[in-house]
């Protein structure tokens, strides 16, 4: 297998990173292909990006795919949820419990909502229900907490309930019964009954989607899975047909929100695993680079993926991405293990406006259409991109590699109109807007890190996406971070696609377990092999042999009578009393790290609520550390082209600033700020008092060694 290909579909562009392995000992060659995204037929843009990448390697698409492994960051499920273009879903739940999703949990009315919403009590309300009440049916059955059948499944009334829902034209059915985590026979039988009545209907059962104790979160996960199941299944079927037509014969691998690759068949069955996987891929790419090449000199990394609409924030601690046990859709929280990536409404398309006597930026975005005013696509409201362009940070003739000509005059008029009520001209408005957006981004990152128990000063910031290089240094300075890395800068704008190509196969299996201290080691020993066997079975479908799998165990514990649990690493091997004692000690240490010294309460006892097994395996021989910058060794003087730029935050007028063509710079290049390094798809800003250099991977490393 000579090519590793990662494809990430965004709202505007589809990015493809194709890595060609060497046959003569030289470093791998990396090329990026971009095409416009093509909703609703996203597979058209997918194939177009592959074709562009193949041309960059001087081969045909068919030649590349004949010797390639294709990995895909699939956003179809995410887009369906965001745009409310989901399937019509019915819900089957234990009789008397169909209202669980409507009652919600009290905290979820406010969870994930902005501060101004939380502050106005009178405006607070529940979100729209995921399933209307008239599509919910109660089922006569009952499983007890220990898995015993308390009331047998009444198949006659179940068939009637299923028929009523099917007759309403549903496209999918979600099944979530009480204590199915302890005994899933009723859920599986209900699925069989559904398929007897409607053989082609998509069915989502909670014991497979989210086998964890917690009726509400488990049911939400099952419903979300059903909402996106039909569109995801149709998309993957169409995409695989197109790939086969182009000569691709291997299994298509899909990025999951847990940070690894799953096969397309698994993704079609449990598509909720792909929700939010795009930003996760960027985090995985950053972790690969930090561990393989120590870029930035630290394995503690903040990732800031600055796109057109959002800032996606991730954390890597000691080389390992931070995880969390739940994901969310709007105000709905559900049980699906995921990497902890948080999104806020701040990006290049964030709209600049006035409210009363205040200038505000975001969270609303101009999007791809109409986009920023300077794009000349009909946009009337100025954005962060307009502000940066007016201050001189972008070359109007070289934006996006010269593919988009910027109309600076139109941007100035729009900014002046917004700033006029505050007595600001266009450039003053632009400077103020950039300071505001930088502060908002820094505040969001600071909040994320401190909630995880980390100090931002112990971290390096990796800035990627189209705006990561523009805002990275300013954000890092506000945080007190050690330095800024624009990873493999030619790929920074398509970094998520690279992260996909650098990912491993990853399967997570979990089970609910209700033990109170002192824990019985034999009960724990009974569970681990069952989970590991499931991992082996699923990875075998991806062509992974048993001896290539790296297993990691995790246990979820809590203090007795608490609601929330904390996941901690668990030892391999057979458990005895001493192993259990070490597991509890690990939990206590992690609990105090998260919540503060003295926050634990061992006297209450402990509860073991769940076990997880992660199985990971490399699908290729790619080593990120082997990738090196393939630019020239041209000196800074040869590549310099000065431009007048207004450096916001310093006062005064424009300064003549060194501007470098990043594509022509090689390893070892360095410069002092103020400076700008331009790449075809991103712009890197080096402020006053900083130095920037290009390392062997082609990353721009900015040292923030002075305060200006």
TrEMBL record:
GO molecular function, one term: 5-oxoprolinase (ATP-hydrolyzing) activity
Hydantoinase A/oxoprolinase domain segment(s): 218-504
GO cellular component terms, semicolon-separated: cytosol
Record-given protein name: 5-oxoprolinase
A Pfam short name: Hydant_A_C
InterPro entries in alphabetical order: ACX-like_C, ATPase_NBD, Hydant_A_N, Hydantoinase_A, Oxoprolinase-like
Segments forming domain Acetophenone carboxylase-like C-terminal: 522-695
Domain Hydantoinase/oxoprolinase N-terminal: 5-197
UniProt record, GO biological process: glutathione metabolic process
SUPFAM superfamilies assigned: Actin-like ATPase domain
């Amino acid at each position: 297998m000579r090519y590793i290909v990662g494809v990430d579909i965004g709202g505007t562009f589809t990015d493809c990173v194709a890595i060609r392995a060497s046959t003569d000992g030289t470093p791998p060659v990396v090329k990026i292909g971009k095409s416009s995204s093509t909703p609703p037929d996203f597979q058209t843009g997918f194939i177009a990006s592959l074709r562009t990448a193949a041309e960059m390697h001087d081969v045909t698409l068919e030649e590349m795919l004949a010797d390639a492994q294709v990995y895909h960051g699939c956003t179809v499920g995410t887009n369906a949820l965001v745009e409310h273009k989901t399937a019509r879903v019915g819900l089957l739940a234990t009789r008397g419990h169909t209202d669980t999703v409507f009652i919600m949990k009290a905290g979820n009315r406010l969870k994930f909502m902005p501060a101004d919403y939380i502050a106005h009590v009178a405006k607070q309300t529940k979100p729209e229900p995921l399933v209307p009440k008239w599509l919910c049916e109660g089922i006569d059955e009952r499983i007890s907490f220990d898995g015993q059948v308390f009331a047998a499944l009444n198949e006659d009334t179940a068939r009637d309930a299923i028929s009523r829902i099917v007759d309403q034209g549903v496209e999918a059915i979600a099944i979530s019964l009480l204590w199915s985590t302890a005994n899933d026979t009723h859920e599986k039988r209900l699925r069989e009954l559904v398929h007897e009545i409607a053989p082609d209907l998509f069915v989502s059962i909670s014991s497979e989607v989210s086998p964890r104790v917690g009726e509400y979160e488990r049911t939400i996960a099952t419903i979300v899975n059903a909402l996106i199941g039909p569109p995801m299944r149709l998309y993957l079927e169409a995409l695989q047909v197109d790939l086969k037509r182009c000569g691709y014969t291997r299994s298509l691998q899909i990025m999951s929100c847990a940070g690894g690759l799953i096969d397309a068949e698994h993704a079609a069955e449990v598509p909720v695993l792909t929700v939010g996987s795009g930003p996760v891929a960027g985090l995985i790419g950053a972790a690969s680079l930090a561990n393989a090449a120590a870029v930035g000199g630290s394995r503690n990394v903040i990732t800031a993926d600055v796109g057109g609409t959002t800032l996606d924030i991730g954390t890597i601690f000691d080389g390992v991405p931070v995880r969390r046990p739940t994901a969310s859709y709007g105000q709905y929280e559900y049980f699906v293990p995921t990497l902890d990536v948080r999104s806020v409404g701040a990006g290049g398309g964030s709209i600049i406006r006035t409210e009363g006597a205040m200038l505000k930026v975001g969270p609303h975005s101009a999007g791809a259409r109409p986009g920023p005013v300077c794009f000349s696509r009909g946009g009337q409201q100025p954005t962060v991109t307009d502000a940066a362009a007016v201050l001189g940070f972008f070359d109007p003739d070289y934006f996006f590699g010269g593919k988009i000509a910027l109309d600076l005059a139109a941007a100035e008029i729009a900014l002046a109109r917004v700033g006029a009520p505050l007595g600001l001209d266009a450039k003053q408005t632009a400077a103020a807007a950039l300071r505001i957006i930088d502060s908002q981004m820094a505040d969001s990152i600071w909040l994320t890190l401190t909630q995880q128990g980390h100090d931002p000063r112990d971290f390096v910031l990796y800035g990627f996406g189209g705006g990561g290089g523009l805002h990275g240094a300013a954000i890092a300075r506000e945080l007190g971070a050690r330095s800024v890395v624009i990873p493999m800068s030619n790929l920074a704008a398509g970094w998520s696609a690279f992260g996909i190509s650098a990912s491993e196969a990853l399967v997570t299996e979990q089970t609910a377990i209700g033990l109170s201290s002192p824990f019985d080691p034999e009960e724990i020993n009974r569970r681990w092999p069952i989970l590991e066997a499931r991992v082996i079975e699923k990875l075998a479908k991806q062509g992974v042999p048993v001896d290539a799998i790296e297993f990691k165990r995790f246990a979820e514990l809590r203090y007795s009578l608490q609601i929330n649990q904390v996941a901690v690493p668990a030892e391999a091997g057979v458990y005895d009393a001493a192993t259990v004692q070490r597991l509890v000690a690990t939990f206590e240490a992690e609990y105090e790290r998260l919540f503060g010294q003295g926050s634990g309460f061992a006297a209450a006892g402990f509860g073991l609520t769940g076990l997880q097994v992660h199985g990971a395996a490399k699908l290729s021989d790619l080593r990120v550390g082997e990738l090196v910058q393939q630019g020239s060794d041209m000196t800074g003087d040869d590549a310099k082209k000065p431009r007048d730029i207004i450096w916001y935050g310093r006062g005064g007028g424009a300064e003549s600033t060194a501007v470098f063509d990043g594509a022509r710079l090689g390893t070892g290049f360095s410069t002092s700020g103020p400076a700008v390094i331009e790449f075809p798809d991103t712009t890197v800003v080096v402020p006053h008092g900083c130095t920037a250099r290009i390392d062997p991977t082609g990353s721009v490393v900015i040292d923030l060694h002075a305060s200006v």
